[in-house]
Amino acid sequence: MKKVFPLHILVTDLNHHVRNLLQRELAKAGHIIYTAGNRKEADEAISGKKPLDLIILDPELFEIFGESFFRTLNDKMAKTNVIIHAFSDVTPDISNDANIRFVEKNEKSIHSLIKIIQDYESFI
Question: What is the pTM of this model?
């Protein structure tokens, strides 16, 4: 079954400027956006009742919040699509997981994110 737009997207980023930019641009594209900038907000969004189709994940959350955050994400959202939005020095091993994509964080990354989201049907 194909997902009907708008998508419910969780944007996690420690930098509030990045969160606000992604929220604004993705909402402008018609999606429903939730944001999380700390552990409490991320846990609430992942554990909550809101449907999530996609998570745009700042991997710095792992460093600050530790492995328990990753386990929570993995346990509760195993079937949710994730875009890891990080600087080029972060090269996650995602080759075996069709639900995870990587987008390098830079001044043009919003265009890459929007392209992946537009191609969402091929992402799932």
Answer: 0.81
Q: What is the CATH number of the domain that holds 51?
A: 3.40.50.2300
Taking the chain (124 residues) in runs of 10, the rounded mean pLDDT of each run is 74 93 93 91 84 86 64 68 80 61 87 84 51
Domain total of the chain: 1
Give residue 100's pLDDT.
Answer: 78
- Asked if residue 1 belongs to a domain, the reply is no
Amino acid at 79: K
Tokens standing for residue 121: 């049907």
> How many CA atoms does the CB half-sphere of 51 hold within 13 Å?
9
Q: Which domain holds residue 30?
A: 20-123
Name, in order, each residue with C-beta under 8 angstroms of 3's C-beta and a sequence gap of 6 or more: 53, 120, 121, 124
